[in-house]
Amino acid sequence: MKQIRVTRGMCNELIAPRPMPDLIAWIGYEPMKNSTLVASVLLIGLLTSPVCAQAKLVGAWAGKWVRDGAALDVVMTFVRAGDGYTGSFDSEQLRVIGIPIKKLSYIPPNVRWTVVGDATTTIFEGELRDSVLRGQFREGKAEGSFALTRMEDAIKRPREEPISFRNGDVALAGSVVLPDGTGPFAGVVFLHGSGAEGRHASRFLAVQFARRGVAALIYDKRGVGESKGDWRTAGFEELVHDSVAAVNALRSRADIACKQVGIHGHSQGGTIAPWVATRVKDLAFVVASAASGIPAEECEIFSVENSLGVGTLSAADAELAREYVRALVSTAYRGTPRGDLETAWKKVKGKSWVFPPPAEKASYWALSRRIADFDPLVHWRQVAAPTLLVYGESDERVPVRRSAARIAGAYLTSTGAQLDVKFFEGADHTFRLSSKKDGSFDWPKSVPGYPDAMLDWVSRQTNTVENRPLPKKPYTGP
User: Fold this and answer.
1) Where are the domains of the chain?
2) Which of 110, 153, 398, 406 makes a 20 to 30 Å CA pair with 50?
3) What is the pTM of this model?
4) Spatial separation of the C-alpha atoms in residues 279 and 363, rounded to whole Å
């Protein structure tokens, strides 16, 4: 008997990468892309301090970043790396763990680092005195303060092991985040969202899975981190094959129950998840988060119009905005001559709400053409694995109800047997609540119930309890 359950919870991306990096600020799997702080971290400078002073910086530091009266709990970890330092930064509220730190400037007592986001750069400058690291940060004209104290106990996280695998000539690298014990464990492979996404974007959720007894494979997208290739020259088909290779790599491990491996994809990853599912035999489950259920070109129009705030414009400006968006997307997805786009651009150029078209040589154009014919329903009609669709009701990148209804229709008219749909009221593309209504600054906050509802659903599908291994079964190949 086929089954569909739809639930609402209590009270984030385009299918192709964004035309301009400052169109959308968001936090994602989850690359963070709504925050000023989270896509990647870069600490800049050289180490010139004495050894005794250097030792003071090594370790974990917990405290707060404060901006406009809003406080964010963070943990920063510094370790020695050759003649310098490296490390990471965590924030439970931002849903990030182990965002990598590359370089650090420490001339005692002065410490300086820079956090680089998708469209912003935040500079931190402070002093380390008496086991307290305190100072100021600035992002453009905005300013804030930070205070961190040394943690006495080491941070306890699930163990993480490196893994490498191949999709044809492309070598891919990642990590397997493992529960306590020896297994075999159920497993989940994370699919990437759009853009240059490294394994760190999914580490927070991977750790949550591991704490519930499910091993998680996270890896660097081709051309990112330690993975070879180039995501900018890849279409959905190449990314799907990368994901299939990742599933087979996880299944081949002796500590993994090969029949209990599923996939999780957010945004672009959720949209191509059904294609991956049709290429993997006996997939245990599919979690498609913020997945589009409409053609790629339509989803792009929906997303870019929301990026421009068409719904908030005057009638005249809204009409001009729609004309511009359709010309932009038609050029990108259909190869329409740029003349129409240039005409539409001239009409809106100088408006405060608009962004210019990407440069003619920008990768956006070729990427859009490669995915223009993608129809997710073609693949959803072939998915048999139990599936969970997860949406934020206020998603501005994907039309939520329309996507869910179309996916459900395709899934249930074919071989699909169990489909659950979860809506979170008030949540955006990344399952965070909207900013304060008065426009004042606030750090992003997750909607209540996320990600626990998704984690609970996977636990039921795999019959896992926290850190409980599954019966051993031999791997018979894909």
Assistant:
1) 41-116+120-150, 159-295+374-462, 296-371
2) 153
3) 0.85
4) 28
Residue 29 CA to its chain's centroid (Å): 2
Provide block-wise average pLDDT over 10 residues at a time, the chain (478 residues). 54 37 32 37 37 68 95 91 82 90 80 79 90 93 95 88 97 97 95 94 97 97 96 96 98 97 98 97 96 97 97 97 98 95 96 95 94 96 97 97 97 90 97 81 94 97 66 42
Q: Tell me the CA distances in angstroms from 8 to 58, 410, 426, one per residue in order.
A: 45, 21, 11
CA distances from residue 465 to 161, 181, 214, 457, 461 in whole angstroms, order as listed: 22, 13, 9, 12, 11
Helix (H) or strand (E) holding 52: helix 51-57
Q: Which residues contact 361 (CB under 8 A, 6 or more apart)?
A: none
CATH class for the domain made up of 159-295+374-462: alpha beta
Name residues whose C-beta falls within 8 Å of residue 87's C-beta, 6 or more positions apart in sequence.
43, 76, 77, 78, 79, 101, 104
Distance CA(302)–CA(325), nearest Å, equals 9
Give one word for 347, left, alpha or beta, with left for phi > 0 and alpha for psi -120 to 50. Answer: alpha
Burial of 62 (0-12, 13-18, 19+ CB in 10 A): middle
Q: Nearest Cα to 20, choosing from 131, 119, 137?
A: 119
